[in-house]
Amino acid sequence: MPGWINVPLAEEVSRRFALPCRVENDANGAGLAEALLGAGRGHRSVFYATISTGIGTGIILDGKVYHGKNGAAGEGGHVSIDYRSEARCNCGSVGCIEALASGTSIARRAGRSAEELARAAAQGDPAALGLLDETAEMLGAWLASVISLLDPDIVVIGGGVSRIGDPLFDRLRRIVPRRTINPFASSTPIVSAALHQDAGIYGGAAVILSA
Ligand SMILES: [Zn+2]
Fold first, then answer.
1. 97 Cα–ligand 1 center, Å
2. pLDDT digits over 35-46, tens only?
3. How far, in Å, CA of 208 to CA of 150, rounded?
4. How far apart are the first and last CA of the chain?
5. Distance 50 CA to ligand 1 centre (A)
6. What is the pLDDT of residues 57-89, one digit of tens each?
7. Can you tell me the mean pLDDT for 171-189?
8. Of 24, 167, 176, 209, whose CB count within 10 A is highest?
């Protein structure tokens, strides 16, 4: 939030409402919820991605969000897969997966929403199939890098774009093992989120439960 620098928000809310309060990044919260209560339940290491207007991610290890030194870890949407890309990202870099394969950038490339693209692809529209293949290649290259780096137990994908369903997931499961050095990648489950539009609510609960 502009102008909010070093604001002790959790303390302030906690003081005013006399209740415990914690502050968490939305994708981290949703990822924690998927790890504890959703599609990642029972797994020790979960990489979560929500692919909607942007791409948010969270790294959950042993039931806790991995925050890094400054609390800024897990910004997987800003991992660039093309340093020469003409797609400039909101973060100032180029070729971030968010700038290439979020719902917003799919809509920009396809001239229609991800859902409409999926419908047209299902009907065999060659242009739609081409765009779906291209999107899956980009997401696949990205997820393969994530798997090379983290070797997670499971990858959970939510957000509007995940609603494309099998046509996207089948492609990712095919592409990812080809693009990583990890010989176990083909057995790393890449699954749809379970909590969907309620992930934020569950995320809030999960953040308090895991405290
Ligand atoms: Zn970026």
1. 7
2. 999 999 999 999
3. 25
4. 24
5. 15
6. 999 999 999 999 999 999 999 999 999 999 999
7. 96
8. 176
